[in-house]
């Protein structure tokens, strides 16, 4: 498969990035300073991440809310203009097909979905919302732009846009220095802003556990904006490596690791993403299975894991207690802010209490691991 | 006599005993090293055996013995400060010494010029 490049590819190379294939894209895993330094710079000041590999979709039309509600457990109708909601596509068993952000701006819904699931998600939207006479149209490209879907619904794949994430406690000051007025603009809000003269769509959100912003702009202005942001001495470039260690510490799930078709939102600790109206109506995909776990408690549960002795425990390692397998590690590595290894994984619900001592099986040996509450590093979102 | 493997280990043979480490290129590729597991002195190993592990933030990497023989000494002081394992110190950062059973095994390894060409 041909790997794709974001509009910032040459910018990354010029800034010393090490590029790796990721979800069909060539992306910077780190720059010269390395993952630990980029991670800590984001926690202490501000990190700038290219997340243009994530797909930006626009869903419009009078039936857009109802269309998305058929695929998600989200009360889409109550997402107010200028607000953002975390959501997920569910299958009929309650498994998670992908997680996504839904923003309402200018009366339309703006979606951001995972890069590795973009083709799946676009096909899923088409298959479920699509007007029969458009079957056979290409997923990408002009054929879909403005394509009319089932009822009064339109979907547009915004591959003419780039996406940057500016994350960390200094992020608001960085934007203010570029003339952005952030008064009355808080966590999970979206709006139009001019950043140094470039018209952007900005959400106050991210995937690091820090205050921060995700900034969408026309692809041909991405380098100019990245250069403007990097000119601020508070800002360090940060790659996918740091993005992963930051989200791991923040306890944020990554599809393919903490989320997939075999994991439902209750098991993954995402009860907050099941809107009250939708729970009461039980009218979302997989509602029966999910509400059973909601009421009875899930059989297994996502937890933080703190390995003892300094050796990281990686994705796929089994978790055991007294010789019995009681769980699996789904993400693991080193947590720079803890200066220690850390992991996420699923364990039998009876063993999910923080402080429980279990073992990870690493290379045929048992590594003692302590169950820990999530997040491992506190979130520092700025709420209104 | 300094030789390199295709897996980026180096061995510096002095008499019948060689110090073993990993190349500057390998250290650079690993990135931040967060955990190192070394072998135990007295262990007999075969060429190609996994004898040590380097863990970076992202991944675990096996270190393979460049020769068969007995591990005679292990550089435990390396573990005191993992940030000291840097590309420019790669040849000081030996992991262990091995008493080589068959020096002829090293003929299959690369000299500095051949290794430099491989990673170029």
Can you walk me through this structure?
The complex is a heterodimer of chains A (384) and B (120). Chain A has helices at residues 9-14, 35-44, 64-69, 118-129, 171-177, 222-230, 240-249, 276-281, 287-296; strands at 4-5, 18-22, 25-30, 46-50, 55-60, 84-90, 96-105, 108-113, 147-149, 153-157, 161-167, 190-195, 198-203, 212-218, 235-237, 300-307, 318-321, 324-335, 340-348, 357-362, 365-372. With 384 residues, chain A is an alpha+beta fold. Chain A has three domains: 4-52 and 160-249, Gyrase A, domain 2 (2-Layer Sandwich), CATH 3.30.1360.120; 55-150, 2-Layer Sandwich (Alpha-Beta Plaits), CATH 3.30.70; 299-372, Beta Barrel (Elongation Factor Tu (Ef-tu), domain 3). In chain A, strands 12-13-14-11-4-15 form a six-stranded mixed β-sheet. Chain A has a six-stranded antiparallel β-sheet with strand order 6-7-8-5-10-9. Chain A has a six-stranded antiparallel beta barrel with strand order 16-19-18-17-20-21. In chain A, helix 2 crosses helix 7. Chain B is globular and about 35 Å long. Helices cover 12% and strands 38% of the residues of chain B. Chain B has one domain (2-112): Beta Barrel (OB fold (Dihydrolipoamide Acetyltransferase, E2P)). Chain B has 120 residues and is mainly beta. Chain B has a six-stranded antiparallel β-sheet with strand order 1-2-3-9-8-5. In chain B, strands 4-6-7 form a three-stranded antiparallel β-sheet, with no helix packed on it. The model of chain B has no long low-confidence stretch (mean pLDDT 96). Chain B has two helices and nine strands. Chain B has helices at 24-30, 112-119; strands at 2-4, 9-14, 17-22, 33-37, 44-45, 50-56, 60-64, 69-74, 96-100. In chain B, a hairpin with a 2-residue loop joins strand 2 (9-14) and strand 3 (17-22). The A-B interface holds A 29-30, 34-36, 241, 244-245, 310-312, 314, 333-334, 336, 341, 363 and B 31-32, 34-35, 37, 53, 55-60.
């Amino acid at each position: 498969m041909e790997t794709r490049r974001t509009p910032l590819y040459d910018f990354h190379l010029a800034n010393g990035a090490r590029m790796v294939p990721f979800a069909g894209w060539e992306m910077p895993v780190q720059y010269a300073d390395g993952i630990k330094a980029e991670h800590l710079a984001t926690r202490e000041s501000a990190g700038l991440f290219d997340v243009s590999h994530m797909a930006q979709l626009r869903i419009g039309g009078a039936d857009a809310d109802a269309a998305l509600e058929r695929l998600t457990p989200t009360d889409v109708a109550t997402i107010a203009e200028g607000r953002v909601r975390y959501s997920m596509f569910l299958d009929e068993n309650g498994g998670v097909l992908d997680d996504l952000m839904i923003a309402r701006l200018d009366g339309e819904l703006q979606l951001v979905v995972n890069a590795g699931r973009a083709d799946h998600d676009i096909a899923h939207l088409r298959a479920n919302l699509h007007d029969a006479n458009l079957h056979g149209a290409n997923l990408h490209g002009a054929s879909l732009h403005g394509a009319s879907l089932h009822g009064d619904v339109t979907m547009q794949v915004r591959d003419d846009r780039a996406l940057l994430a500016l994350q960390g406690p200094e992020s608001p000051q960085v934007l203010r220095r570029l003339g952005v007025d952030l008064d009355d603009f808080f966590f999970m809000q979206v709006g139009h802003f001019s950043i140094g003269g470039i018209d952007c769509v900005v959400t106050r959100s991210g995937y690091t556990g820090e205050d921060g912003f995700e900034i969408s702009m026309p692809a041909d202005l991405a380098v100019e904006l990245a250069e403007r942001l990097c000119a601020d001495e508070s800002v360090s470039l940060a790659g996918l490596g740091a993005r992963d260690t930051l989200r791991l510490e923040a306890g944020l799930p990554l599809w393919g690791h903490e989320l997939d078709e075999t994991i439902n939102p209750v098991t993954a600790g995402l009860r907050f993403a099941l809107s009250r109206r939708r729970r009461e109506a039980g009218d979302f995909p997989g509602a029966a299975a999910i509400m059973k776990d909601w009421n009875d408690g899930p059989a297994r549960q996502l937890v933080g894991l703190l390995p003892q002795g300094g050796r990281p425990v990686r994705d796929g390692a089994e978790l055991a207690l007294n010789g019995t397998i009681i769980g699996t590690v789904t993400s693991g590595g080193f947590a720079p802010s803890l200066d220690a290894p850390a992991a996420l994984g699923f364990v039998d619900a009876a063993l999910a209490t923080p402080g429980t001592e279990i073992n990870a099986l690493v290379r045929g040996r048992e590594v003692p691991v302590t169950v820990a509450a999530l997040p491992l590093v506190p979130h520092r979102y700025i709420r209104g | 006599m300094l030789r390199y493997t295709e897996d980026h280990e180096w061995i510096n043979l002095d008499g019948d005993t060689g110090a073993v480490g990993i190349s500057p290129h390998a250290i650079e590729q690993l990135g931040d090293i967060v955990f190192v597991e070394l072998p135990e002195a007295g262990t007999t190993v075969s060429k190609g055996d996994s004898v040590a592990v380097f863990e970076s933030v992202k991944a675990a990497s096996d270190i393979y013995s460049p020769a068969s023989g007995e591990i005679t000494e292990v550089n435990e002081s390396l573990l005191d400060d993992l940030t000291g394992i840097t590309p420019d110190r790669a040849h000081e950062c030996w992991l262990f010494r091995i008493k080589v059973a068959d020096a002829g095994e090293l003929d299959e390894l690369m000299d500095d010029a051949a290794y430099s060409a491989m990673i170029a």
